[in-house]
Fold each of these.
Amino acid sequence: MFGATLSRLSGRGQRTLSLFSSSGPSNWSKVVSDAEKIVGYPTSFMSLRCLLSDELSNVAMHVRKLAGTQHPLLSTARGFVYDSKNNLQMRGLVVLLLSKAAGPSHTASDLLAQDMVSGIYPSQRNLAEITELIHTAFLVHRGIVNLKEWTVSDGPLKDMEFGNKIAVLSGDFLLANACTGLAELNNTKVVELISSAIGDLVQGIYYESSNNTEENILTNGVDMATWEEQTFLSYGALLAKSCQAAMELAKHDKESQRLAYKYGKHLSLGHKLNSDLQPFVKNNAVEPVSFSFDAAPVVFHRQIVGQERWRQQLQQSTTLRNQLNYSKLLAAVKSEKGVSSAVDLCCYHGNKALEAIQAFPSSEARSALENIASAITKF
């Protein structure tokens, strides 16, 4: 009974989390706002052409039918309209800032440099938009509900099935638009990089799904080394390879591409760690506590206490009605060094990102990138 209940609770716990990142540090909004001014326009308008197309307008009409249900696609749609945490367009913003920070390559012709707007090539702006479209497509696809876990409180079953169909079709539409834009860049290496990032995303999401099983929840099968590898696939590969691709479009050398990749990799891992840490570091007694069992502090905690004690803590946190008391489990995790270990790892990745960006010339764009890397280490 305990195992079956825990499996169901863990799946539903995942679904209640926002499809967008958890709220970050208090100065995150200001850092993003200041950075957007440097690249020429708010990145929230980056994928507006696609989102306002006739095809997606029709999708939006159908999404209205899901009102009153608990389908995650509604949360995704609300995020497009109002993203108060300024996380939705972070990847495109970083690509634009890196493009501006690196500037034109020494091997680029003067004629090519004349095409730059606010220090960024049009192809790099297109790449930033493509990156956001791919990210958004996978966000939409993540909102597909496992109907085996459906309950009456979620809403009518036929509406949930309909929501799944819309999520698949709209996600595929965004991804198709991204692939079309990618081909129009006319750069085979960039196509190869971004295509491999899409493959990484698929592999990472598969790992996430396989880890969210009863067996993995009850054991400590995933250690932090594995967590970092899988998190990079799900959250870091797209940004890291997009940053590298931005350098390739401007004809920068391999060392510049390596540093851009390094910045994107460590920034995204640090950002994910910061997001995972929010339920464990913020002091908000009003909001109900909820967190993923795949969150970094929990993975660290499981490693520290071992399988048997972790199983005992889960049983002690389960009420007589077979509901998981997240507040009690949160206190158990906070009683050990899992949270402090995750904070240390977050700071490590933030510092690595700062280290990578130092090789680029001093500028407003580089300062903005430094501010972003510093912001993810603050709680």
Note: The radius of gyration is 21 Å.
Amino acid sequence: MAGIVVVFDFDRTIIDGDSDNWVVVEMGLAELFNQLLYTMPWNSLMNRMMMELYSEGKTEEDIANCLKRCPLHPQIFAAIKSAQAHGCDLRIASDSNSFFIESILKHHGLLDCFSEITTNPSFVDEEGRLKILPYHDVTSSPHGCNLCPPNMCKGLVIERIVAAIAERERKRIIYIGDGRNDFCPSLKLRESDYLMPRKNFPLWNRICENAMLIKAEVHEWSSAEEFKSNLLCLIDKIFIEEESDAGSISSQLKSSECNLATMCIQTHETLSPQTLQKASPFLAYGKEREKIER
């Protein structure tokens, strides 16, 4: 099934929490982090935290071991493995950083499932200090998007993916996310694409408030179980539509699979812009990536 590209956010999507928060809290940096929180951009602040860990004698291995303790739900693991087994092209677009994401995925045996990870770059310098850089250089090449933080515009990432797949063959995108910075890429999705926002999180709020701007078909999820079932049902749905259009699907397969897909879609209601417009705005999950809990 080469006709599906699944793009995942990472924090609060693949993992239930936030990888930056996890390192800050688990490695004893919460107090300093909160003191500096409003003095610099988040990306720069995380780089500052890595400087602090280095000054305390913490190594790259210490940080990696901390990240290995970050939990990943078995149903999320199963969903990723199943999507890969179906032949989907799996990618990540995240405002975390490459070291954090790759350390967690590698520990859980998922790193090789993804063809591309677009995130803030990080590297260990010659002195052994982990450095975190912005994906977009805010000085030399600012992205100019007022919906996204200065270090990364995910909308540009989706635009690049859409342009690349349009040149080769018709592919559908399933985008899965939760945060405010997932709204911009959601606006770049086409009518043939699918959007899976995490219910009651900032992305869901923005969709409710700006429903008519969303072209993609929306399927919300609240739990890891819904994440898995919705994703696999959408993959089945696309598979049925593509095979049916090609005229090569057997009547028996089409009947059985369509029943499964229809049941899934009805259980997790497809939210059209009109449906979303009538929905009451949900309470925000809280200021995204704001103050670290001690």
Note: The longest helix spans residues 224-246.
Amino acid sequence: MSLLARFRLEHTLRPSNDAEGSADASAGDNTNTRADDSGRLFFPPSSPVCESSSSLEPPPPGQRQRERSDSAEEVLQRESQQRCKRRCAIQVCRDLELAENALTAFTEIKDEVNSFIKSDDFKDVLQDRLRTALLSANLSHYLNGLNDRVWGFIKKNLTVFNIPPLAMEDARLTIHINTLMKDVLTKQRSQIKTKITASISKKHHISDLAKSLAGRDFVDVTFTQWRRFAFLQNYLLFNTMVDESLVKKVTAMEPQEDADNDSAASADETPSRTWSGNQFWEFIDQLLDEMREDIRKKPTAQLRKQAWEQYFTDMLQLDLELFPAENRSASLHPLDGRSAPEWQKAIHQDLAWL
């Protein structure tokens, strides 16, 4: 049975009430202890005796290490190299008809860019933007191909992520940004999954889940995002399929009495995939793919669009039945997205590729 067929059958699911050596080394081991020619015991460097002795007894005054100081000749050599570099920089600026301090100013700007890209402020901006991407109602995949798509989007929309163009001209900074992006996406996915699990366990209304996922810096959460959040709460179905997969694995290990008859009967059956607990986002991606494949059967683009939206509308209606608001007057309502900042609109509109 395909994920989509199972998805349709499980619309009547109800959430369950259940929530989801020290090393022993002996200090008295003297196997490496030996005596020298004079009969004195010698302890190896790792011996506690040796460590305690070295920590308590300072070396003789004549044997204390002194910090190495640069000689006058080395200082003069460095100063000479700096003067030579300055003269070369001035000459290059003159040849290019630039101000004599142009290279110095460029170096200062580059240092500022380097400091910003490696700062916590830039990391905070990147976290906000990538969280917005993962909460987009139009996101095509949450795992498969996402890193490449987001990286391509970043390179085309540097202002959305507050990235100075000069940073992308530096190979080391480019690698740093790309590595940071992948790390942030991984952590954000983990946080979203954790919040969804907690929301299901506590039977929170969808507005509470939306507020938890959006965070304090998120401006607008729209109705279409509510529908996508409800879809992500297929975590219930995912957990059920993980449990069934575990049963299948255990059953497969047990001896079968009528192995020949069973193999003949199952020859025409396509074996269903098994799932493990760390494959939630892969499960969501596959379910989205099967939904897209199903709506392609519709004859017109309009019907395909309606069928696609109906999937998420049905999930939201089911979610509202399963997790009603305790206080309807106090529950939040989705916004229309008109007041969302431009960077949020750009992410929601352009990060869709299927």
Note: DSSP finds 14 helices and two strands in the chain.
Amino acid sequence: MGFNLSEGKKLAAKVTEILRKSMKKRRKIRAKKAKAKPAGNEETHSLTSTKHDIGVSKIPDLVVAHVHLKRGSEPKKKDSPDYLAYQLRLGYRVVHICHVIIMENKTGPSRRITDAQELDQEVKGGLIVAQKDLIRQLALHFTQDLCSDQVIAVSAAGLYWRWLLVERRMFAGVPLQSALTFGNNKTEASIPAKHLAPLGKLAKVFQKRPYYVLGTPESDTEWQKLRNDTLIPHLNKHKLYPHTTLVTPKDYSSATPGPSRT
């Protein structure tokens, strides 16, 4: 089923606005935490002062999902559990869901920097930190969604951001399913960093991408390009496959990859 172009543009505009608001909210939270820190802390905005930037986060900061709904049949019995479920879902049922954008945002560079070269180094350093988390999250994405063949990855450091269209084939050589480990609750999946070593080439490709400053004309132009040339075409062409996200060890062990998309 095709995706209406006008609806796609409206959706993409909302995506852009969500990204803007997300970054704005994170800046406010960081500023509030910085004020609460002891006066002896010399640098409250450096990469090394924020715990979130040191560890590897298993959950992305922002995920944009494509959800396709279909009108369901109204159950005849008004007092049945099926009718309650029908009401809770406003009469619709989900027939497809996938993630089209995955974003990781780390702390931006200090506002005390006065040297342009130092600022560039700080920005690139922050983007690399975000990228490390992002690559692991992408590996989990392709492991959990057996039908996905590509996703838009966005790494950010405060207002600075860059993006890359990442394809499943870039993870060739990575033992996605066999390398999975699970937390104590048996539902939280992760992939140890040692298994992601073959992704060095992907990391280098990402690092060569130019970065932009949110709110500038150049950034707005790039968002438009991302939306029009990559996001909307992807929404238009990919098949509305059933939801395939896996959550337990049993699901992974019995899963087989879905059909590839062209």
Note: The two ends are 14 Å apart (CA to CA).
